[in-house]
Protein 1
Amino acid sequence: MASSAGVVNIRRDVDDKFYRYRMPVLLTKIEGKGNGIKTVIPNMADVARALSRPPTYPTKFFGCELGAQTSVDEKNDRYIVNGAHDAARLRELLDGFIEKFVLCRACKNPETDLVVTTKNRHEDIVRDCKACGELTGVDMRHKLTTFILKNPPKNAKKGKKKGGNGEANNGNGDEGAEDDGGGSDDELTQRIKAEAAELNTDAALAKEDWSVDTSEEAVRARVKALEGSMAAAVLAGDDEGGDDDDGADGPYGVLGVWIEENRADAGAVQVYKKAQELGIEKKHKTVLVLIQALFDTNVVAQIPTYAPLLVKMVTSEKHQKALLGGVERLVGIAHPELVPAVPKILMALYQVGVLDEEVVTQWGTHVSKKYVDKDISKRVRKASEPFLKWLEEADDDDDDEDEED
């Protein structure tokens, strides 16, 4: 079966639950037998997204390190390394990829872009760090560099090395510029702890790509729509609070509208503190509200960002059902174009450890009109079938292994 779900710090040597750079735990699934045996990495696209690298890079890196052939089907998110490889071993190799091709050599921050530089017709690859402004080279002797040069990132920046000192130009004229306001990541995490886990929004959230229109007009329109839908959403909770709680002016409606109005400035900690202030941080209806208010069409990429908040607030089967109800409303009503992405959304939630296999399997086989109308409920569950099938097949693999033992 695929390895247990969860999220980890991108730098696994950093033992800090408030470390803001997180990624899903790399999952593996062994398929085939004999000479046809292979290791499939079902969440490689999600891991690579967290690292801001194309998923082909770490996949090819594994192949280089293991001396194994790899195959990629980007359209269907299939990333394969030939042979049977232990998940723990691949995670160690991923650490190596991160060290060599992601982390800034100067400040060890993972917030870097790969840049191809050219000097005298010789191409090099450097890491352009958004945190400290340094440009640090990668080891061009590694076999992966040949693959990267032939398959540069789609948004890769090209730079020319400055004559004389061999430094690269990052393309914006700010060579080696320091970040005056951000400070190091260690300083940031210390500040978080010292200020009751409040995030440094200037340094952290300003770099988030929310991909949403934050103009006053757009926010006003979304708030108005949210006020209208929030009351209907929380009424489905049925056993927490009364009529006073369930209106747009009740605590759940207030929380939802507050999140929308403060989307650009509020992180996971602030959202939790707002729920605490309203006295609803332990209620399952709060989870229903969070899914609708926090996420938009980039939900799959956004889930790891809010994983610590979800893990803290999803504490029972009832909470998980509310979480799934929120997904139904998010993709079935707010963003119908997301229906085909339901398997990826469920996989992302499963990976961060807020969905149990039994709960999501039961949900997937029982249409309900509790949170949405029956037609939408059927449509969302139908779309979830690839994920449910993956869970079932993973169980079958476990059973086969038990029989062999």
Note: The chain has a mean pLDDT of 77.
Protein 2
Amino acid sequence: MQPPGPQGPALSDAVATRPSDRLQQLSRASEAAAHQQDTRPAADSEPRFWQDVLTEQLWQLFAGLHDEADGPEGSTGLPSPAPGSPEASGNARSTGSGGSSGETPFHVTQETARRPCRFLKPICWDPEDFEDAWERPDALPWQSRKLAVPYRMEKVRVLKPGEPLLVTTISSFTRHAFTCGRSGVKVWSLVGQTPGAQLRTCLLSPHSMTLLLGGNSLAGVTVWDLKAPCLHVRHALPCADLTCQALAASPRDSLALAGFSNGTVRIWDLRNQSVVRDLPGPQDGAKTLVTAERQVWAGGLAARLQCWDLRSPKEPQEYHFDSQIMSLSPHPLEDLILVGTANGQQWLQPTRGGQKYTVGCKDSAILGLQFSPLGQWWVSVGMDSLVSVYGMPAGTKVFQVPEPSCITCCDVSPNNRLIITGSPQQATVYQITY
């Protein structure tokens, strides 16, 4: 059976109806609607769709064309034709006495009267859309600057993804830009980039739930929540007028640490973003910073390795090296700190006292090194443009992979399967096979 619609019987009847009959229908419908409005309970104060004769008649015309398609649930609440009227007779003839045609009788739909539709409620706009007041003399009260035509723009960021872009998009909610190239999608943070600001370091928490960012001319060290549905800055740790060049985290104590170029090592409590303590670090600044158990280890260009106990504000222990300390990595299971120096040497320093010992060397400065999650091996990179993997405990060289330029940083994934390296030109991800 063809469903009723604009081409169904209701439309045919409406077209076939003479103008004089239509006017009579409108007149009777107007009187019935007025009677219905007069008999409405006084407590029902909601506005009706029709407030004047013209609107009412237009609604009657529309309802006459579509009531049959709406069915009992789509009833408009219009009064039913009076018994014995031509409309009632015509409906009875079209449906039969028992409704054997299977269609809902038109007069049944009319009898199941429903209250007229209410006025549409006003749209609830986000307050941010109207937070600015437009002060032009000819502006209307509801107008906003954001709805006006712009008259200037200025450049605030330049993003260099290093490849031709296919699509770009931007979010004002999360303050991120997304660039799509043939190699993948890159996510750019637009937060805190004041003139002259530069990122210098970042740190992923041991549980991969938080990202710390620090640098020069920033409002503070920013804490990004990675487990939220949308990337956003959860906290900004205060460090005004300080240049951050190293970051560390102590998950057991919910602490974040930063080493600054003036030699200060600052500790924050992430639970309330308060400053716990400032430690007098290396005078030339902490180039690298790590935590091991309840200890903080810092190394810098003065060729000194310093260690503080977080449980007491005593003077730090110091260990001297022959060259500048460029990178540190704590062993995940043993009381050892791996030290990489500018002359290419690699050392293991016991954290509970004892003599350090060398575990292999490279031909040039070591810029980054990282233990594997279980501590059986570590990766070392630097000016020699080689990704080198060494085994514990003697520092036996396992293999090396060349890259086209010097390598400035590296990391190992928590699942022990991926290595990432960074250079001035690119970042490279390696998959490990055992």
Note: Residues 9-39+47-111 form one domain.
